[in-house]
Amino acid sequence: MLLFPGFVNSFHVVATPRGALRVAPVTMADVLVIQNKGGGHGEIGFHLAQHLVSRGDAVTILHEGDGPNPKEAHRAYGELPSDVKVIWGGDLSEAAACLAKLEGASFSAVVDNWSKSPEAIAPYATAAKAWGVSNYAYVSSAGMYTPDKGDYGAVGEECAVKSSGQRQAEEKIAEMGLPFSYFRPPQYIYGPAQGKSYLAFFFDRITRGRPVPVPNGGDQLVTMTHAADNAAMIAAAVGNEAAVGEAFNCATPSLVTYDDLVRLCAGAAGKECEIAHYDPAGFDKPDGFKYKFPFRDTPFYVSADKASRLLGFSPAHSIADDISWYYSEQYVAKGGLDKELDFAEDDVVLGRVPA
After folding, report:
1. Global pTM value
2. Which GO terms describe its cellular component (predicted)?
């Protein structure tokens, strides 16, 4: 069997009676997605189901929580095809009860977008091993990386990691002998059903004629990845032998600086912008100080070269292309222009008033 990573389908190459070759589709996967209810990963399950169903896979989502709630990532499930089965599992840490809700079904692949510790992942991994899955794709986090101090280049999968709960979960499924793949998204994910908006900070100030505080020189590089691209990379691993035993940085390769993000936001809003750089350690923070820049003070971004090479991954989105949509649908349509805001702490950061 030949596998074509990243394509919509996989195929068998079959000899015909005349010796010619023809291509025949293989049986698609039956995928269980174990999905969390929020956080940066909260939207990935929705897009993942769309990707998998579009290529012919059967999808069951075992979802954290007791049922749809007002969060957008959950409301979006109503847009999925009717043949995607969504099972609301309640507390997924009660694994025996949650697995019982599958009513004896078995699966050929599992995508775990919920577990954050070895204790949490173990019962689901045990079930997956009993099913004989071809892939156990685990969505962990790029936050485990510990690059050398002062090293602000692209972080590769070979970078040293700290022993976080998610790293220990990675180690657990490897110890259990599962055909694992690890997917490590960085923090900054966006999409139509996103939870936190990382760009509201910029739009709030630009649309009100305020300077936009940016730490240090503003030339720090960052990735902002659309959740559909995170999902596309993970989907490319399902049924793909090349993904087994590998860790992948789950992010777009498209980079942008903080200053350029501000300018993109200003362009989308049709406004001029004033960027005001500041030293994050150069001012005293008064009691109760709540100001928070939406990104790290220093650069942090990962390399997606490995996913491109082994999985054929190529993003369909970039924040530069999506910025007008983001402004209109994720800021204006959600009442961003109508918010009452107090920028007094900005003045402290920028040294315009005493702390």
Report:
1. 0.88
2. cytosol
